[in-house]
Amino acid sequence: MTTHSTACPLDCPDHCSLSVEVEDGRVTEIDGNEVNPVTQGYICAKVRRLPEALYGPERVLEPAFRIGPKGSGHFKPVTWDEALDTIARKLVAVRDQHGGEAILPLSYGGSNGFLSQDTTDARLFWRLGASNLKRAVCAAPTGRAAMGLYGKMPGVAYEDYPHARLIVIWGANPAASGIHLMPFLQEAKAHGAKLIVVDPRRTKLAAKSHLHLAIRPGTDLPLALALARWLFENDGVDRKFLADHATGVDAFHEHAAMWTLDRAALTCGIDAHAIEAFAKLYRDTTPALIRCGWGLERNRNGGSAVAAVLALPALAGKFKVKGGGYTLSNSAAWPLTSTAAAAASPPNTRTINMNRLGEALTETTDPRVHALFVYNSNPLATMPEQEKVRKGLEREDLFTVVFDSFLTDTALFADVVLPATTFLERHELSRGYGSLSLQRGMPIIERIGASRTNHEVFLELVKRAGLAQVGDPETEADIEAAILKATPEIQGALENGNGFTHPPFGPRPVQFVDVFPRTSDMKVHLFAEELDTEAPRGLYEYAPDPGTPRFPLALISPASHRTISSTLGQLVRGQIALDMHPADAEPRNLKDGDSVRVWNTSGEVICRVSLTESMRPGVVCLPKGLWSRHTQNGRTANALAPDTFSDLGEGACFNDARVDVTHAG
Ligand SMILES: Nc1nc2c(c(=O)[nH]1)N[C@H]1C(S)=C(S)[C@@H](COP(=O)(O)OP(=O)(O)OC[C@H]3O[C@@H](n4cnc5c(=O)[nH]c(N)nc54)[C@H](O)[C@@H]3O)O[C@H]1N2
Ligand SMILES: Nc1nc2c(c(=O)[nH]1)N[C@H]1C(S)=C(S)[C@@H](COP(=O)(O)OP(=O)(O)OC[C@H]3O[C@@H](n4cnc5c(=O)[nH]c(N)nc54)[C@H](O)[C@@H]3O)O[C@H]1N2
Ligand SMILES: [Mo]
Questions:
Q1: How far is the C-alpha of 513 from the C-alpha of 638, rounded, in Å?
Q2: How many Å lie between the centroid of ligand 1 and the Cα of residue 292?
Q3: Is pLDDT at 379 greater than 80 in this prediction?
Q4: What domains sit in the chain, N to C, each tagged with a CATH number?
């Protein structure tokens, strides 16, 4: 038996360093190690079970062509040459006949590494003149807000949470979605820190908090503005900090002034005293820290909501101390771009927002999408308006390639399936977006089946489509070198750190001491003009609930401990239930365990119901990332999610799904 070290690049903030045991060429055990200090030697239960997936029945072992109807999952194996030639020929034919825009590449965070996205893949699709993809399914509203206010200033490191005396967990559920924050929260609590949770559900963390604000989904904006107004009126504003470091204070104040505690309480569906208690604690406690998650972005007010939450630490002067400030995404901590290795530039072609994939495949014309190339993503499981996506994937005149390590729900609709290596079979360079770390990933085992890396496949397709140019970065080493070229200090730090490094500003930055806003004037822009222009109603303008009396329940679909988005969903056995408060079940005559129909005008999900007091009445929950096998009718939460856009960043509004629930059958 041998033990090897590598990094987990899956789409999670923690970015664990891994210890992998191999026996006779097979992975037998995976655990955390201490290379990334945040990992602390342990990992989540999902990735611990990765060997089951590696060698499981869903693993794609060879390239294959479809032989049955779309969706049937009947394929025949072919050679790589046949597959690549067919795909290259087809892409070129679609471009020549309909124009490059008739090709749509669809990818997201599956591999989450610098080497395997936006490198040779971008080279292929850009040189083909394909449609551009707007990757807005996640973090688009938070990203716009964080950019507008702070130019994406890096946030507080997990390790500094124990310094905080007050921690606000806002629209995040780290017990499921980033478990390595948990011991630091426990440590902070053990030192006497207070914990506030803002979440419509009573999560495990909320149950252990000092104050839980179980607001209606999509009402974070009024809550944050009411807190701001209270701070303005109750000597809770740090005028000196604002004078030195902020712009837009008056415009922000004007918007906050509209939201009294009572008005916000009514809108949020909570007690005004709870908001006041929150405001007092926040004013009176230092260091105070906000962990802002992604749960609050996934609705029509998401962008303004995140902006208003991020305004609070500036307003109350919570920066400049260890354990004070905020953490959102730390993805921008690294001045690295994969496209440096593309050796091409984006074409001046149309942009298609991935949140409207269903529309793009069923309604978009001029030109119609004739070729879809899916990699690093499982859109049938993860994009809104699932029925539309499915209808699009069923189109006989659509040529679909799915390149994945596993036979996902989407792959069942492919004309050609290509086997991808998993991160244990290839090199990678990846960073955390919670953890402040950059790590090299190493191939630990021989490739399983005939799988290939993204980089190899796209390089071959570039060549076979006749698009290669002299001087293209070709080898993996070329690609990494192109990405790191502009930052020799990072390259050096990786070498010295055995493939691991913290960002140039250090492992545990104090905001406004070690890191500053990356805005033009290094100040926080509390009323960023560009955000005000972008938001349809203007920045900080609340859009009321779009619900209709016919669909009185809000359906949310957050991350669960079972999957990473839909990754590793094949390991989830049995069916998954809808969570509902007993008060919503009673008038519907529903008992725990009943089969129910969850429905709206977009679709329906048939599954069991689980009654739990942890839900807020009026809100029901299905986890994100389910596969079709996890419900009785093969549909998941996304069959009910609208493809409307959030106010900033054209982000997905998963949690704006409004439904009703009845007995099934
Ligand atoms: N185990 C696991 N880990 C993951 C993932 C996974 O799928 N599984 N996904 C990864 C990815 S891609 C991401 S983006 C992150 C996301 O991780 P998080 O930031 O935790 O985001 P979510 O899971 O979407 O939602 C977090 C919480 O927000 C609550 N919520 C829902 N609507 C609202 C609202 O309107 N306001 C407020 N205040 N709260 C609301 C939900 O009930 C949930 O408890 O996690 C990553 N980590
Ligand atoms: N209802 C609902 N839906 C949601 C959300 C929600 O909150 N509610 N959250 C959304 C969020 S936050 C996100 S980030 C998206 C994520 O949506 P997706 O990006 O579609 O994420 P995954 O489902 O994890 O699919 C990633 C796929 O990439 C594959 N993959 C991994 N590594 C490689 C590689 O190296 N090469 C290739 N070719 N493939 C690889 C994996 O096997 C997996 O099948 O889902 C969104 N969907
Ligand atoms: Mo995400």
A1: 43
A2: 10
A3: yes
A4: 2-54 (3.30.200.210), 64-134+341-491 (3.40.50.740), 156-327+510-534 (3.40.228.10), 553-663 (2.40.40.20)
